[in-house]
Target: Helix-turn-helix transcriptional regulator
Amino acid sequence: MTKADNMLSILWMLRSGRRMTAKQLAEKLEIHVRTVYRCIDSLCASGVPIIADSGPNGGYRILEGFSDSPLLFDGDESKGLIHAAVFAREAGYPHSEALDSAVDKLKRYTNEKQLDRLERHGGGLSVIYPPIDGRYRVFLQMLEEAAGQGRTLEMEYDPGKGGGSPSRLFDPYGIVYWKGSWYAVGHCGYRGEPRSFRVDRIRALRETEGRFERPASFSAKDFLLGTLLPDSGSEGLETVRITAREQVLNELCRHWLFGHALTERKPEEAVFRLEKSTLNTYVPYFLMPYGTALTIESELLVRRMAETTSRMAAYYETMLTRFESGKDER
Model:
């Protein structure tokens, strides 16, 4: 018999509920007792909660209730499930309670040594996200279930520009978690086209009797990135070459905007294709913390950096003058 056959035979004999010694197992299978020890070790490593009782009436047995456990996970799979539950819970995943229940079930069918290992791994990972209120979680669950069932929802949405927007029918094709926020992607009945919506700006969701079929080739993730990231063929792009130490450039390229706009990379040089509108607004403020660590080859961006830093310096100079005037008066 192969090792796998021996392991399966030992598993079935122990699942009968009887306590059996290594010698008894070896005699039943007509194998060496050392082979039994190796099979027991392999079964424990794969997640089977085998208990070894010492003494005159000792032997091996399986933790009571193990027969109710539908799956076996090895150590890395168990650790991955526990860590996934931590991430999901903190990120507001709509079915995190079900995932926590699965983790509790996993822990229920483990022996003391396995449980201690799982608890140590679970306590070794922390995730920090903004707090998520109960309504937000309810909306995420409604959107995910509607996407799976093909059910149309009625949505009230705040676009964040002051004031509300008309109530609309919405066919959710999927939900996407990106950069700390959840997005709902689907067909907007008000606009008559696919749109993406920030879930934290949804004011109300209601189920309807409407049904829809999601396009077979539609990708919610690709659609969202296509709306948030610049079009590589756009004429409104500027080539920006930045020279810096390798570690500095590595950090810069981790940012979503720069990472997706990267066109060429060397150890101490990176070339980006960035929208001119972001160079005039967002990018200068993002690059300020890097100070003089960057050498930038883009007249447009350098000009905007100079203007922005000068305006900020003037602002704080004015503030400093007020402090000094107050000291003179005293």
User: Anything to note?
Assistant: Residues 299-329 form the longest helix (31 residues).
